[in-house]
Amino acid sequence: MTTFSQLMGTQTLLPIIQADTVEQGLDIAKAMADSGLKVVEVVLRSDASLEALRAIKQQHPDLLVGAGTVLDTQMLQQALDAGADFIVTPAITDALLKAVKACEVPGLPGVSTPADIALARENGFHEMKLFPASLAGGIPFLKAVSSVFRDVVFCPTGGINANNRCDYLALPNVIGVGGTWVAQKEWVEAGEWHKITDACKAVL
Q1: Per residue in 70-124, pLDDT tens?
Q2: Which of these is catalytic: 98, 101, 127, 129?
Q3: Cα end-to-end span (Å), the chain
Q4: What is the DSSP letter of 174?
Q5: Which of 52, 57, 76, 134 is deepest in the core (most CB within 10 A)?
Q6: What band does 1 get if pLDDT is binned at 50, 70 and 90?
Q7: Active site residue 195
Q8: Is the dihedral of CA 180, 153, 64, 78 positive or negative?
Q9: Neighbour count for residue 197 (Cβ, 10 Å)
């Protein structure tokens, strides 16, 4: 099966779409697509998130659209029903790991401790999301676990920004970073979609 890193290809930023309405989600997705990005994540944090994911898939068929903030097996099924191309979780349980592993799409389980990493690895995952990256230890943590979990790579999210993303990406066990800084809330509320496009272009 295709892995998350294979989906990402040369793209090193996983841009996060947090939308309060379907229309907002579509506008953010279009702004990101206009920059040349091919992979985006819609976080399931509002009542409109699933419909936004479904609409983005329909209107932007060239985009690979993942579902983030998947907390349990019910949300996982809803995300798959909406057409999610990949699954991202903020944390893990044994049941959730097994369900994500059984999916037909790639999964990126969220970890924050060595115990989490060991559990995810035991369930067959070698690509993980470190969340919340800055609070979980950031770059020093990633350096520390690199010699222990030599076959595990990460996509850190949480506290990543334009100023520190290159420091994370310089680590050999980092395959990409997740971030919201390319779609800041004030830009979305003001409808300043060009700022999202420009911020995304800056990371390509």
Answers
A1: 999 999 999 999 999 999 999 999 999 999 999 999 999 999 999 999 999 999 9
A2: 129
A3: 26
A4: B
A5: 52
A6: confident
A7: no
A8: negative
A9: 19
Closest by Cα among 114, 109, 111 to 146: 114
Exposed, middle or buried by CB within 10 Å (0-12, 13-18, 19+), for 135? exposed
Instruction: Give the burial string for 95-121 (b: 16+ CB within 10 Å, else e).
Output: ebbebbeebebbbbbbbbeeebbebbb
CB 118 within 8 A of CB 90: no
Segments making up each domain of the chain, as ranges: 12-110+161-201
Classify domain 12-110+161-201 at the CATH superfamily level.
Answer: Aldolase class I (3.20.20.70)
Q: Is this prediction's pTM over 0.90? A: yes
Stretch 152-172: mean pLDDT: 97
Q: Where are the alpha helices (DSSP H) in 14-110?
A: 22-35, 49-59, 73-81, 94-101
Is residue 129 part of the annotated active site? The answer reads yes
